[in-house]
Protein backbone atom coordinates (compact mmCIF):
# COMPACT_ATOMS: atom_id res chain seq x y z
CA UNK A 1 0.00 0.00 0.00
CA UNK A 2 1.47 3.34 -1.05
CA UNK A 3 1.16 6.00 1.62
CA UNK A 4 1.41 9.76 1.09
CA UNK A 5 4.58 11.40 2.33
CA UNK A 6 2.79 13.84 4.58
CA UNK A 7 -0.58 14.57 6.16
CA UNK A 8 -3.29 15.81 3.85
CA UNK A 9 -3.83 19.53 3.45
CA UNK A 10 -7.20 19.24 5.21
CA UNK A 11 -5.56 17.61 8.22
CA UNK A 12 -2.81 20.22 8.33
CA UNK A 13 -5.42 22.98 8.20
CA UNK A 14 -7.40 21.32 10.98
CA UNK A 15 -4.33 21.19 13.23
CA UNK A 16 -3.16 24.72 12.52
CA UNK A 17 -2.91 26.73 15.74
CA UNK A 18 -2.36 30.53 15.70
CA UNK A 19 0.92 31.65 17.21
CA UNK A 20 -0.94 33.54 19.93
CA UNK A 21 -2.56 30.30 21.10
CA UNK A 22 0.86 29.10 22.22
CA UNK A 23 1.38 32.12 24.46
CA UNK A 24 0.13 32.11 28.06
CA UNK A 25 -0.55 35.83 27.84
CA UNK A 26 -3.34 35.04 25.37
CA UNK A 27 -5.24 33.35 28.19
CA UNK A 28 -3.89 34.92 31.38
CA UNK A 29 -6.04 38.10 31.51
CA UNK A 30 -9.28 36.16 31.07
CA UNK A 31 -8.32 33.60 33.71
CA UNK A 32 -7.33 36.43 36.04
CA UNK A 33 -10.69 38.10 35.47
CA UNK A 34 -12.41 34.89 36.57
CA UNK A 35 -10.22 34.77 39.63
CA UNK A 36 -10.90 38.42 40.53
CA UNK A 37 -14.64 38.25 40.00
CA UNK A 38 -16.95 38.51 42.99
CA UNK A 39 -18.62 35.15 43.28
CA UNK A 40 -21.66 33.97 45.23
CA UNK A 41 -23.70 30.78 45.03
CA UNK A 42 -26.16 32.22 42.52
CA UNK A 43 -23.42 33.33 40.17
CA UNK A 44 -21.53 30.04 40.10
CA UNK A 45 -23.28 28.44 37.07
CA UNK A 46 -22.54 31.36 34.72
CA UNK A 47 -19.00 31.68 36.11
CA UNK A 48 -18.41 27.95 35.53
CA UNK A 49 -19.62 28.36 31.96
CA UNK A 50 -17.04 31.07 31.26
CA UNK A 51 -14.29 29.02 32.90
CA UNK A 52 -15.30 25.96 30.91
CA UNK A 53 -15.19 27.87 27.61
CA UNK A 54 -11.71 29.19 28.40
CA UNK A 55 -10.44 25.76 29.44
CA UNK A 56 -11.84 24.38 26.18
CA UNK A 57 -9.95 26.98 24.17
CA UNK A 58 -6.65 26.27 25.88
CA UNK A 59 -7.27 22.51 25.81
CA UNK A 60 -7.95 22.57 22.09
CA UNK A 61 -4.66 24.32 21.43
CA UNK A 62 -2.87 21.69 23.52
CA UNK A 63 -4.64 18.82 21.74
CA UNK A 64 -3.86 20.14 18.27
CA UNK A 65 -0.23 20.85 19.04
CA UNK A 66 0.18 17.41 20.58
CA UNK A 67 -1.50 15.63 17.65
CA UNK A 68 0.52 17.62 15.13
CA UNK A 69 3.69 16.56 16.95
CA UNK A 70 2.59 12.90 16.78
CA UNK A 71 2.07 13.20 13.03
CA UNK A 72 5.54 14.72 12.58
CA UNK A 73 7.89 13.11 15.08
CA UNK A 74 10.76 13.87 12.70
CA UNK A 75 10.06 17.63 12.39
CA UNK A 76 12.11 19.58 14.93
CA UNK A 77 10.15 22.81 14.51
CA UNK A 78 6.80 21.12 15.18
CA UNK A 79 8.25 19.21 18.13
CA UNK A 80 9.77 22.39 19.54
CA UNK A 81 6.51 24.31 19.34
CA UNK A 82 4.67 21.62 21.28
CA UNK A 83 7.40 21.39 23.90
CA UNK A 84 7.37 25.17 24.30
CA UNK A 85 3.64 25.01 24.98
CA UNK A 86 4.19 22.26 27.54
CA UNK A 87 6.91 24.23 29.29
CA UNK A 88 5.47 27.75 29.13
CA UNK A 89 1.67 27.39 29.09
CA UNK A 90 0.88 24.25 31.06
CA UNK A 91 2.54 25.29 34.37
CA UNK A 92 0.75 28.64 34.79
CA UNK A 93 -2.43 26.97 33.56
CA UNK A 94 -2.14 24.32 36.30
CA UNK A 95 -1.56 26.97 38.96
CA UNK A 96 -4.50 29.02 37.74
CA UNK A 97 -6.69 25.94 37.69
CA UNK A 98 -5.87 25.31 41.32
CA UNK A 99 -6.60 28.92 42.26
CA UNK A 100 -9.97 28.87 40.50
CA UNK A 101 -10.83 25.54 42.08
CA UNK A 102 -10.07 26.91 45.55
CA UNK A 103 -12.23 29.94 44.75
CA UNK A 104 -15.12 27.67 43.76
CA UNK A 105 -14.77 25.44 46.82
CA UNK A 106 -14.78 28.51 49.08
CA UNK A 107 -18.16 29.82 47.86
CA UNK A 108 -20.52 29.65 50.86
CA UNK A 109 -23.91 27.97 50.62
CA UNK A 110 -23.23 26.65 47.12
CA UNK A 111 -24.95 23.39 46.19
CA UNK A 112 -23.95 22.00 42.79
CA UNK A 113 -26.66 21.23 40.27
CA UNK A 114 -27.34 17.51 39.68
CA UNK A 115 -25.21 17.47 36.53
CA UNK A 116 -22.26 18.96 38.43
CA UNK A 117 -22.30 16.92 41.63
CA UNK A 118 -19.60 14.58 40.36
CA UNK A 119 -17.66 17.43 38.79
CA UNK A 120 -17.65 19.31 42.08
CA UNK A 121 -16.41 16.22 43.91
CA UNK A 122 -13.63 15.78 41.37
CA UNK A 123 -12.60 19.42 41.74
CA UNK A 124 -12.40 18.92 45.49
CA UNK A 125 -10.30 15.75 45.09
CA UNK A 126 -7.98 17.38 42.56
CA UNK A 127 -7.47 20.38 44.80
CA UNK A 128 -6.48 18.14 47.69
CA UNK A 129 -3.97 16.35 45.47
CA UNK A 130 -2.41 19.52 44.03
CA UNK A 131 1.12 20.46 45.04
CA UNK A 132 3.11 23.40 43.69
CA UNK A 133 6.19 21.20 43.44
CA UNK A 134 4.35 18.96 40.99
CA UNK A 135 3.71 21.78 38.50
CA UNK A 136 7.28 21.89 37.23
CA UNK A 137 7.59 18.15 37.69
CA UNK A 138 4.51 17.71 35.51
CA UNK A 139 6.32 19.48 32.68
CA UNK A 140 9.23 17.09 33.10
CA UNK A 141 6.80 14.20 33.02
CA UNK A 142 5.30 15.37 29.72
CA UNK A 143 8.73 15.89 28.21
CA UNK A 144 9.78 12.38 29.19
CA UNK A 145 6.66 10.90 27.63
CA UNK A 146 7.32 12.86 24.46
CA UNK A 147 10.78 11.31 24.25
CA UNK A 148 9.03 7.95 23.97
CA UNK A 149 6.85 9.27 21.12
CA UNK A 150 9.83 10.59 19.20
CA UNK A 151 11.87 7.39 19.63
CA UNK A 152 9.07 5.07 18.56
CA UNK A 153 7.70 7.41 15.90
CA UNK A 154 11.04 7.38 14.09
CA UNK A 155 11.59 3.64 14.49
CA UNK A 156 12.24 1.73 11.26
CA UNK A 157 12.37 -1.96 10.35
CA UNK A 158 14.79 -3.36 7.77
CA UNK A 159 13.21 -6.35 6.05
CA UNK A 160 13.94 -7.98 2.67
CA UNK A 161 15.86 -4.95 1.50
CA UNK A 162 13.07 -2.54 2.42
CA UNK A 163 12.79 0.05 5.16
CA UNK A 164 9.34 -0.27 6.72
CA UNK A 165 7.37 1.43 9.46
CA UNK A 166 6.44 -0.69 12.46
CA UNK A 167 2.79 -1.17 11.30
CA UNK A 168 3.94 -2.16 7.81
CA UNK A 169 6.33 -4.76 9.22
CA UNK A 170 3.71 -6.09 11.65
CA UNK A 171 1.37 -6.72 8.74
CA UNK A 172 3.67 -9.54 7.63
CA UNK A 173 3.09 -11.34 10.92
CA UNK A 174 -0.32 -12.27 9.47
CA UNK A 175 1.17 -14.06 6.47
CA UNK A 176 0.18 -17.75 6.23
CA UNK A 177 3.78 -18.60 5.28
CA UNK A 178 5.57 -19.39 8.54
CA UNK A 179 8.92 -18.40 7.08
CA UNK A 180 7.61 -14.94 6.16
CA UNK A 181 6.21 -14.50 9.65
CA UNK A 182 9.44 -15.55 11.32
CA UNK A 183 11.52 -13.20 9.15
CA UNK A 184 9.18 -10.30 10.02
CA UNK A 185 9.23 -11.18 13.72
CA UNK A 186 13.03 -11.31 13.79
CA UNK A 187 13.28 -8.00 11.90
CA UNK A 188 10.89 -6.38 14.37
CA UNK A 189 12.83 -7.87 17.27
CA UNK A 190 16.05 -6.35 15.93
CA UNK A 191 14.38 -2.98 15.49
CA UNK A 192 13.05 -3.14 19.04
CA UNK A 193 16.41 -4.26 20.35
CA UNK A 194 18.04 -1.22 18.75
CA UNK A 195 15.79 1.28 20.56
CA UNK A 196 15.48 -0.69 23.81
CA UNK A 197 18.37 1.07 25.61
CA UNK A 198 16.86 4.48 24.86
CA UNK A 199 13.44 3.34 26.07
CA UNK A 200 15.03 1.80 29.17
CA UNK A 201 16.49 5.20 30.02
CA UNK A 202 13.16 6.96 29.45
CA UNK A 203 11.39 4.44 31.68
CA UNK A 204 13.83 4.85 34.55
CA UNK A 205 13.35 8.60 34.35
CA UNK A 206 9.57 8.19 34.31
CA UNK A 207 9.60 5.90 37.33
CA UNK A 208 11.66 8.38 39.29
CA UNK A 209 9.38 11.25 38.25
CA UNK A 210 6.21 9.34 39.09
CA UNK A 211 7.51 8.31 42.48
CA UNK A 212 8.38 11.93 43.20
CA UNK A 213 4.92 13.11 42.12
CA UNK A 214 3.44 10.74 44.67
CA UNK A 215 5.92 11.73 47.38
CA UNK A 216 5.23 15.44 46.85
CA UNK A 217 1.50 14.76 47.24
CA UNK A 218 2.07 12.82 50.50
CA UNK A 219 0.92 9.55 48.95
CA UNK A 220 2.62 6.26 49.88
CA UNK A 221 3.28 5.28 46.26
CA UNK A 222 2.43 6.20 42.69
CA UNK A 223 -0.45 3.74 42.56
CA UNK A 224 -2.18 5.57 45.41
CA UNK A 225 -1.45 8.90 43.72
CA UNK A 226 -2.72 7.74 40.35
CA UNK A 227 -5.83 6.21 41.90
CA UNK A 228 -6.81 9.62 43.22
CA UNK A 229 -5.75 11.42 40.05
CA UNK A 230 -8.04 9.14 38.02
CA UNK A 231 -10.89 9.53 40.54
CA UNK A 232 -11.25 5.78 40.98
CA UNK A 233 -13.90 5.35 43.66
CA UNK A 234 -15.92 2.37 42.44
CA UNK A 235 -13.27 -0.32 42.94
CA UNK A 236 -9.95 -0.91 44.70
CA UNK A 237 -6.49 -2.26 43.84
CA UNK A 238 -7.54 -5.48 45.56
CA UNK A 239 -10.40 -5.81 43.05
CA UNK A 240 -7.85 -5.50 40.25
CA UNK A 241 -5.68 -8.23 41.76
CA UNK A 242 -8.76 -10.46 41.97
CA UNK A 243 -9.39 -9.72 38.29
CA UNK A 244 -5.84 -10.78 37.40
CA UNK A 245 -6.39 -14.07 39.21
CA UNK A 246 -9.79 -14.64 37.60
CA UNK A 247 -8.36 -14.11 34.13
CA UNK A 248 -5.48 -16.45 34.92
CA UNK A 249 -7.90 -19.18 36.00
CA UNK A 250 -10.96 -18.62 33.78
CA UNK A 251 -9.62 -17.10 30.55
CA UNK A 252 -6.01 -18.25 30.06
CA UNK A 253 -7.02 -21.93 29.69
CA UNK A 254 -9.63 -20.98 27.04
CA UNK A 255 -7.18 -18.72 25.22
CA UNK A 256 -4.60 -21.50 25.27
CA UNK A 257 -7.09 -23.97 23.76
CA UNK A 258 -8.05 -21.56 21.00
CA UNK A 259 -4.45 -20.79 20.05
CA UNK A 260 -3.26 -24.39 20.28
CA UNK A 261 -6.25 -25.62 18.29
CA UNK A 262 -5.40 -23.22 15.46
CA UNK A 263 -1.78 -24.38 15.58
CA UNK A 264 -2.90 -28.00 15.48
CA UNK A 265 -5.09 -27.44 12.43
CA UNK A 266 -2.12 -25.79 10.72
CA UNK A 267 0.13 -28.71 11.57
CA UNK A 268 2.45 -26.61 13.73
CA UNK A 269 4.52 -28.48 16.30
CA UNK A 270 4.13 -25.62 18.79
CA UNK A 271 3.17 -21.95 18.97
CA UNK A 272 6.25 -19.84 18.36
CA UNK A 273 6.18 -16.05 18.92
CA UNK A 274 5.76 -15.47 15.17
CA UNK A 275 2.70 -17.75 15.18
CA UNK A 276 0.76 -15.56 17.61
CA UNK A 277 -0.70 -12.10 17.06
CA UNK A 278 -3.40 -11.39 19.62
CA UNK A 279 -4.89 -8.75 17.33
CA UNK A 280 -5.26 -11.16 14.42
CA UNK A 281 -4.97 -14.88 15.15
CA UNK A 282 -3.81 -17.09 12.29
CA UNK A 283 -6.42 -18.58 10.02
CA UNK A 284 -6.78 -22.29 10.92
CA UNK A 285 -7.08 -23.18 7.21
CA UNK A 286 -3.88 -21.35 6.34
CA UNK A 287 -5.61 -18.78 4.17
CA UNK A 288 -4.22 -15.32 3.48
CA UNK A 289 -5.39 -12.62 5.86
CA UNK A 290 -8.40 -10.69 4.74
CA UNK A 291 -7.38 -7.54 2.86
CA UNK A 292 -10.62 -5.63 2.35
CA UNK A 293 -9.10 -2.35 1.17
CA UNK A 294 -5.92 -0.81 -0.17
CA UNK A 295 -6.00 2.92 0.57
CA UNK A 296 -7.20 4.98 3.49
CA UNK A 297 -9.87 6.47 1.24
CA UNK A 298 -11.22 2.99 0.51
CA UNK A 299 -11.34 2.24 4.24
CA UNK A 300 -13.33 5.42 4.81
CA UNK A 301 -15.77 4.43 2.05
CA UNK A 302 -16.44 0.96 3.41
CA UNK A 303 -16.83 2.32 6.95
CA UNK A 304 -19.31 4.94 5.78
CA UNK A 305 -21.50 2.27 4.17
CA UNK A 306 -21.44 0.27 7.40
CA UNK A 307 -22.52 3.31 9.41
CA UNK A 308 -25.25 4.07 6.88
CA UNK A 309 -26.61 0.57 7.43
CA UNK A 310 -26.40 0.93 11.19
CA UNK A 311 -27.70 4.46 11.84
CA UNK A 312 -28.16 7.62 9.77
CA UNK A 313 -26.87 9.96 12.47
CA UNK A 314 -23.70 7.95 13.02
CA UNK A 315 -23.12 8.05 9.26
CA UNK A 316 -23.57 11.83 9.25
CA UNK A 317 -21.05 12.24 12.08
CA UNK A 318 -18.49 10.12 10.24
CA UNK A 319 -19.11 12.10 7.05
CA UNK A 320 -18.38 15.30 8.97
CA UNK A 321 -15.05 13.87 10.05
CA UNK A 322 -14.16 12.88 6.48
CA UNK A 323 -15.04 16.28 5.07
CA UNK A 324 -13.24 18.33 7.71
CA UNK A 325 -9.76 16.85 7.97
CA UNK A 326 -10.50 14.88 11.13
CA UNK A 327 -9.06 11.55 9.92
CA UNK A 328 -5.39 10.73 9.31
CA UNK A 329 -5.23 7.02 8.58
CA UNK A 330 -2.20 5.95 6.51
CA UNK A 331 1.08 4.74 7.99
CA UNK A 332 4.16 6.70 6.95
CA UNK A 333 7.65 7.51 8.21
CA UNK A 334 7.81 10.03 11.04
CA UNK A 335 4.28 9.32 12.26
CA UNK A 336 3.65 7.89 15.71
CA UNK A 337 2.78 4.21 15.30
CA UNK A 338 -0.15 4.00 17.72
CA UNK A 339 -3.84 4.68 17.01
CA UNK A 340 -6.01 7.02 19.06
CA UNK A 341 -8.89 9.48 19.05
CA UNK A 342 -8.12 13.06 20.04
CA UNK A 343 -10.73 15.71 20.88
CA UNK A 344 -11.04 19.41 20.06
CA UNK A 345 -13.60 20.81 22.52
CA UNK A 346 -14.27 24.28 21.10
CA UNK A 347 -16.01 22.94 18.00
CA UNK A 348 -16.83 19.60 19.63
CA UNK A 349 -14.85 17.71 17.01
CA UNK A 350 -12.93 14.44 17.45
CA UNK A 351 -9.84 13.52 15.45
CA UNK A 352 -8.73 9.96 14.63
CA UNK A 353 -5.09 9.04 14.03
CA UNK A 354 -4.28 5.56 12.71
CA UNK A 355 -1.61 3.65 10.77
CA UNK A 356 -3.55 1.46 8.35
CA UNK A 357 -1.91 -1.06 6.03
CA UNK A 358 -4.93 -2.68 4.38
CA UNK A 359 -5.98 -5.42 6.82
CA UNK A 360 -9.25 -6.51 8.38
CA UNK A 361 -7.70 -5.55 11.71
CA UNK A 362 -7.56 -1.98 10.41
CA UNK A 363 -11.30 -2.15 9.82
CA UNK A 364 -11.87 -3.17 13.43
CA UNK A 365 -9.54 -0.48 14.76
CA UNK A 366 -11.25 2.21 12.70
CA UNK A 367 -14.65 1.24 14.11
CA UNK A 368 -13.03 1.29 17.56
CA UNK A 369 -11.50 4.76 17.24
CA UNK A 370 -14.56 6.25 15.57
CA UNK A 371 -16.62 4.79 18.42
CA UNK A 372 -14.54 7.08 20.64
CA UNK A 373 -15.32 9.91 18.22
CA UNK A 374 -19.06 9.29 18.59
CA UNK A 375 -18.59 9.51 22.36
CA UNK A 376 -17.00 12.92 21.92
CA UNK A 377 -19.75 14.13 19.59
CA UNK A 378 -22.68 12.95 21.72
CA UNK A 379 -21.31 13.95 25.10
CA UNK A 380 -20.26 17.32 23.70
CA UNK A 381 -23.71 17.92 22.24
CA UNK A 382 -25.43 17.26 25.57
CA UNK A 383 -22.89 18.44 28.17
CA UNK A 384 -22.13 22.19 28.00
CA UNK A 385 -19.36 22.09 30.63
CA UNK A 386 -16.13 20.77 29.14
CA UNK A 387 -15.39 18.75 32.30
CA UNK A 388 -18.67 16.86 31.85
CA UNK A 389 -17.79 15.54 28.40
CA UNK A 390 -16.51 12.06 27.62
CA UNK A 391 -16.83 9.94 30.78
CA UNK A 392 -14.89 8.32 33.60
CA UNK A 393 -12.17 6.12 32.11
CA UNK A 394 -13.90 2.95 33.33
CA UNK A 395 -16.58 3.62 30.71
CA UNK A 396 -14.65 5.42 28.01
CA UNK A 397 -13.73 2.28 26.03
CA UNK A 398 -17.32 1.02 25.84
CA UNK A 399 -18.34 3.38 22.99
CA UNK A 400 -15.35 2.16 20.98
CA UNK A 401 -15.45 -1.55 21.77
CA UNK A 402 -19.21 -1.83 21.45
CA UNK A 403 -18.97 -0.22 18.01
CA UNK A 404 -16.68 -3.08 16.94
CA UNK A 405 -19.60 -5.44 17.64
CA UNK A 406 -22.54 -3.27 16.55
CA UNK A 407 -21.10 -2.98 13.04
CA UNK A 408 -20.72 -6.76 12.60
CA UNK A 409 -24.10 -7.12 10.85
CA UNK A 410 -23.42 -4.25 8.43
CA UNK A 411 -20.34 -5.45 6.57
CA UNK A 412 -21.94 -7.41 3.73
CA UNK A 413 -20.48 -4.90 1.27
CA UNK A 414 -16.98 -5.51 2.68
CA UNK A 415 -16.88 -9.28 3.04
CA UNK A 416 -18.69 -12.18 1.44
CA UNK A 417 -20.50 -14.61 3.72
CA UNK A 418 -17.46 -16.77 4.37
CA UNK A 419 -15.17 -13.79 4.93
CA UNK A 420 -17.66 -12.20 7.31
CA UNK A 421 -17.77 -15.42 9.32
CA UNK A 422 -13.96 -15.28 9.55
CA UNK A 423 -14.02 -11.63 10.60
CA UNK A 424 -16.67 -12.32 13.24
CA UNK A 425 -14.79 -15.36 14.52
CA UNK A 426 -11.61 -13.31 14.93
CA UNK A 427 -13.53 -10.58 16.73
CA UNK A 428 -14.86 -13.04 19.30
CA UNK A 429 -11.56 -14.90 19.66
CA UNK A 430 -9.89 -11.53 20.02
CA UNK A 431 -11.85 -10.79 23.19
CA UNK A 432 -10.67 -14.05 24.75
CA UNK A 433 -6.99 -13.63 23.92
CA UNK A 434 -7.01 -9.94 24.78
CA UNK A 435 -8.06 -10.40 28.40
CA UNK A 436 -4.83 -12.19 29.47
CA UNK A 437 -2.82 -9.38 27.88
CA UNK A 438 -4.89 -6.75 29.70
CA UNK A 439 -4.46 -8.56 33.02
CA UNK A 440 -0.72 -8.83 32.43
CA UNK A 441 -0.40 -5.14 31.61
CA UNK A 442 -2.34 -4.16 34.72
CA UNK A 443 -0.54 -6.63 37.00
CA UNK A 444 2.84 -5.32 35.82
CA UNK A 445 1.91 -1.76 36.74
CA UNK A 446 0.55 -2.73 40.15
CA UNK A 447 3.91 -4.34 40.86
CA UNK A 448 5.92 -1.53 39.29
CA UNK A 449 4.41 1.33 41.27
CA UNK A 450 3.36 -0.32 44.53
CA UNK A 451 5.54 -3.37 45.16
CA UNK A 452 8.79 -3.06 43.20
CA UNK A 453 12.03 -2.47 45.15
CA UNK A 454 13.10 1.09 45.86
CA UNK A 455 16.33 0.74 43.90
CA UNK A 456 14.70 -0.57 40.76
CA UNK A 457 16.75 -1.68 37.77
CA UNK A 458 15.87 -2.50 34.19
CA UNK A 459 16.76 -6.11 34.98
CA UNK A 460 14.01 -6.08 37.61
CA UNK A 461 11.47 -4.83 35.07
CA UNK A 462 12.53 -7.43 32.52
CA UNK A 463 12.38 -10.25 35.06
CA UNK A 464 8.91 -9.29 36.28
CA UNK A 465 7.53 -9.00 32.76
CA UNK A 466 8.99 -12.38 31.86
CA UNK A 467 7.38 -13.96 34.92
CA UNK A 468 3.99 -12.47 34.07
CA UNK A 469 4.23 -13.40 30.40
CA UNK A 470 4.89 -17.02 31.31
CA UNK A 471 1.78 -16.91 33.52
CA UNK A 472 -0.63 -15.24 31.10
CA UNK A 473 0.76 -16.62 27.81
CA UNK A 474 1.95 -20.12 28.75
CA UNK A 475 1.18 -21.48 25.28
CA UNK A 476 4.11 -19.62 23.63
CA UNK A 477 7.23 -21.66 22.91
CA UNK A 478 10.41 -19.59 23.23
CA UNK A 479 12.82 -22.54 23.24
CA UNK A 480 16.13 -21.58 21.66
CA UNK A 481 15.19 -17.90 21.38
CA UNK A 482 16.66 -14.94 23.19
CA UNK A 483 14.25 -14.41 26.06
CA UNK A 484 15.61 -10.90 26.58
CA UNK A 485 13.36 -10.03 23.65
CA UNK A 486 10.37 -11.49 25.46
CA UNK A 487 11.36 -9.68 28.63
CA UNK A 488 11.09 -6.30 26.85
CA UNK A 489 7.37 -6.71 26.23
CA UNK A 490 6.73 -4.02 28.83
CA UNK A 491 8.10 -1.43 26.39
CA UNK A 492 4.57 -0.69 25.27
CA UNK A 493 2.74 2.57 24.62
CA UNK A 494 0.51 2.66 27.70
CA UNK A 495 3.32 1.84 30.13
CA UNK A 496 5.03 5.03 29.02
CA UNK A 497 2.15 7.29 28.07
CA UNK A 498 -0.88 6.33 30.16
CA UNK A 499 0.08 4.66 33.45
CA UNK A 500 -2.67 2.54 35.01
CA UNK A 501 -4.88 3.02 31.99
CA UNK A 502 -5.35 -0.52 30.73
CA UNK A 503 -7.67 -2.56 32.93
CA UNK A 504 -10.39 -0.30 31.55
CA UNK A 505 -10.02 -2.07 28.20
CA UNK A 506 -10.87 -5.34 29.91
CA UNK A 507 -13.81 -3.88 31.87
CA UNK A 508 -15.21 -2.34 28.72
CA UNK A 509 -14.64 -5.36 26.50
CA UNK A 510 -16.69 -7.41 28.94
CA UNK A 511 -19.42 -4.75 28.79
CA UNK A 512 -19.20 -4.53 24.99
CA UNK A 513 -19.85 -8.26 24.75
CA UNK A 514 -22.91 -7.69 26.95
CA UNK A 515 -24.15 -4.88 24.68
CA UNK A 516 -23.67 -7.12 21.65
CA UNK A 517 -25.55 -9.93 23.39
CA UNK A 518 -28.41 -7.45 23.97
CA UNK A 519 -28.30 -6.36 20.33
CA UNK A 520 -28.78 -9.95 19.21
CA UNK A 521 -32.18 -9.81 20.89
CA UNK A 522 -33.18 -6.21 20.10
CA UNK A 523 -30.79 -4.29 17.79
CA UNK A 524 -32.71 -1.01 17.81
CA UNK A 525 -33.02 -0.89 21.58
CA UNK A 526 -29.35 -1.76 22.09
CA UNK A 527 -28.25 1.05 19.77
CA UNK A 528 -30.62 3.52 21.42
CA UNK A 529 -29.28 2.69 24.87
CA UNK A 530 -25.73 2.91 23.54
CA UNK A 531 -26.27 6.48 22.34
CA UNK A 532 -28.16 7.48 25.47
CA UNK A 533 -25.25 6.34 27.63
CA UNK A 534 -22.81 8.36 25.51
CA UNK A 535 -24.90 11.50 26.01
CA UNK A 536 -24.56 11.24 29.80
CA UNK A 537 -20.88 12.09 29.47
CA UNK A 538 -18.85 12.55 32.63
CA UNK A 539 -21.81 13.70 34.71
CA UNK A 540 -22.96 10.26 35.90
CA UNK A 541 -21.26 7.64 38.09
CA UNK A 542 -19.66 4.64 36.43
CA UNK A 543 -22.31 2.08 37.49
CA UNK A 544 -25.07 4.37 36.18
CA UNK A 545 -23.35 4.70 32.80
CA UNK A 546 -23.10 0.93 32.48
CA UNK A 547 -26.77 0.51 33.42
CA UNK A 548 -27.77 3.15 30.88
CA UNK A 549 -25.97 1.11 28.22
CA UNK A 550 -27.85 -2.00 29.35
CA UNK A 551 -25.06 -3.83 31.19
CA UNK A 552 -23.63 -4.18 34.69
CA UNK A 553 -20.36 -2.75 35.96
CA UNK A 554 -18.72 -6.02 36.89
CA UNK A 555 -15.37 -7.70 36.31
CA UNK A 556 -15.46 -10.34 39.01
CA UNK A 557 -14.75 -14.04 38.53
CA UNK A 558 -18.39 -15.15 38.22
CA UNK A 559 -19.14 -12.49 35.61
CA UNK A 560 -16.03 -13.34 33.60
CA UNK A 561 -16.87 -17.05 33.71
CA UNK A 562 -20.40 -16.36 32.43
CA UNK A 563 -19.20 -14.25 29.52
CA UNK A 564 -16.57 -16.83 28.57
CA UNK A 565 -19.33 -19.45 28.48
CA UNK A 566 -21.37 -17.17 26.20
CA UNK A 567 -18.39 -16.59 23.89
CA UNK A 568 -17.60 -20.29 23.70
CA UNK A 569 -21.17 -20.90 22.61
CA UNK A 570 -20.94 -18.22 19.93
CA UNK A 571 -17.59 -19.52 18.70
CA UNK A 572 -19.06 -23.00 18.23
TrEMBL record:
Binds 1 zinc ion. This is Oligoendopeptidase F. Residues 174-562 form the Peptidase M3A/M3B catalytic domain. Keywords: Hydrolase, Metal-binding, Metalloprotease, Protease, Zinc. InterPro entries: Pept_M3A_M3B (IPR045090), Pept_M3A_M3B_dom (IPR001567). One of its GO terms (molecular function) is metalloendopeptidase activity. Belongs to the peptidase M3 family. GO terms for biological process: peptide metabolic process; proteolysis. Pfam families: Peptidase_M3. The lineage of its organism: Bacteria, Thermotogati, Deinococcota, Deinococci, Deinococcales. Its cofactor is Zn(2+).
